[in-house]
Amino acid sequence: MGLQDKYKAVIDAATAQGVSDLLVREQDGVLYIDGTAPSSNAKQQVWDVYESVNPDFRDSDVVMNLSVAAGGEESYTVKSGDNLSKIAKKYPGLSWKDIYEANTDKIKNPDLIQPGWELRIPQK
């Protein structure tokens, strides 16, 4: 099974969510998925599908570089089992500390976040 077949659900989700300039290419055993999501919610939907195909991000055979269109808000809804490091992995260039510092009004202890919280994701 090729990588595009393995991650067909992710590619389909990107298309369904209206990701523009979608570019999918396979190189050296890695599938690259690039594009611009119309909103942070659309971007999150694509990441959710990716996580269902590759739980806990065990396989390192995909690089997703999805940005949010200008004016699109960047936010993330915390799910059960999330931690700041896991969330930061979904946003290339960000660390858990960047997310923590953008949400100090809500997060008092970076090790304790609650499902359902809406976190601001800073742009890098």
From TrEMBL:
Pfam families: LysM. Residues 74-121 form the LysM domain. Gene3D superfamilies: LysM domain. This is LysM domain-containing protein. PANTHER family: PHAGE-LIKE ELEMENT PBSX PROTEIN XKDP (PTHR34700:SF4), POTASSIUM BINDING PROTEIN KBP (PTHR34700). Transmembrane segments: none annotated. InterPro entries: Bact_Kbp, LysM, LysM_dom_sf.
